[in-house]
Write a structure and sequence with these properties.
It is a single chain. The protein is an alpha/beta fold. It folds into 2 domains: 152 residues, Peptidoglycan recognition protein-like (Lysozyme-like, 3-Layer(aba) Sandwich), CATH 3.40.80.10; 95 residues, Orthogonal Bundle (Muramoyl-pentapeptide Carboxypeptidase, domain 1), CATH 1.10.101. The chain is built from 9 helices and 10 strands. The longest helix is centred in the middle third of the chain and has 19 residues. It binds zinc ion. Zinc ion binds next to loops.
Length: 263
């Protein structure tokens, strides 16, 4: 694996071995513009690595130092994650002005190779390979809904729930038949409008989000923190439900992911 050194002055000491990898996008038009920004002492921001669209890997901060990439953040009971993590930036223009682009194959391959290499030096838990939006849902959207977490999981990097069993599909088919008959009788808005927003459902979602690692309080109310955590969860695990609130797809996936993320 070829690594190009491009040292950044923006880092702090750290006292313990990292056990997390946090994935970002640069939110800049080119890798060069992002490298300049991450190496500028005035910006104070950085990451350990940056991977260009064409797959080149740049090292900005040594792994035994804390790069300034996560900011105010929380995951699985810990805050200020710069201390515990390795930050990897992916060259991508990001969400601004709707420019988010798919991540090219060559960039994804370099990322997976880099994470495997990092794992030869540090014990990185699968439940700790996550996105910036997972650890700072109220401020961040990166790496975004076009990032293919399933592809990583197929190569044993990070966690993804297993596909539903035959029984699960059977349940869905049965549910479909029931739904059609209910719809026929005009009860559709009740099913889709009210059922999924009961305080009990919100509380259950908060418990599951908390079990996975997100920062939420168990209030039983759809507060701002919960709304942002649900959006971050959808960006990572069920993009087809993105922005649809606590719909049945999100509820189902929350249960499956929480099971997979059990401590
Ligand atoms: Zn970020």
């Amino acid at each position: 694996m070829k690594i190009i050194d491009r040292p950044s002055p923006n880092f702090s000491p750290r006292s313990q071995d990292p056990d997390m990898v946090i994935i970002h996008y640069t939110d800049m038009p080119t890798a060069e513009s992002a490298l300049k920004r991450l190496c500028d002492p005035k910006t104070k921001v950085s990451a350990h690595y940056l991977i260009s669209k064409t797959g080149e890997i740049y090292r900005l901060v040594p792994e035994d130092k804390a790069a300034h990439h996560a900011g105010v953040s929380h995951w699985r009971g810990r805050d200020s994650l710069n201390q515990y993590s390795i930050g990897i930036e992916l060259d991508n223009p990001g969400h601004a002005a709707g420019k988010l682009k798919p991540f090219p194959d060559v960039q994804m391959e370099s990322l997976m190779e880099l994470i495997r290499d990092i794992r030869t030096r540090h014990k990185i838990h699968d439940w700790n390979i996550i996105g910036h939006s997972d650890v700072a849902p109220d401020r961040k959207k990166d790496p975004g809904e076009l990032f293919d977490w399933q592809r990583l999981a197929r190569r044993d990097i990070g966690l993804w729930p297993e596909t539903g069993s035959i029984w699960e599909w059977g349940q869905w088919a049965l549910l479909g038949v029931c739904m059609i008959s209910i719809w026929d009788r005009g009860h559709y808005p009740y099913i889709f409008g009210k059922r999924v927003r009961r305080p009990k459902d919100v509380m259950e979602a908060q418990k599951l989000l908390h079990a996975i690692g997100y920062k939420v309080l168990l209030t039983g109310e759809m507060d701002k923190e919960t709304e942002f955590a649900i959006l971050a969860f959808q960006r990572h695990f069920c993009t087809e439900s993105l922005g649809k609130g606590l719909d049945s797809g999100t509820q189902k996936m929350l249960t499956r992911v929480a099971k997979t993320f059990q401590r």
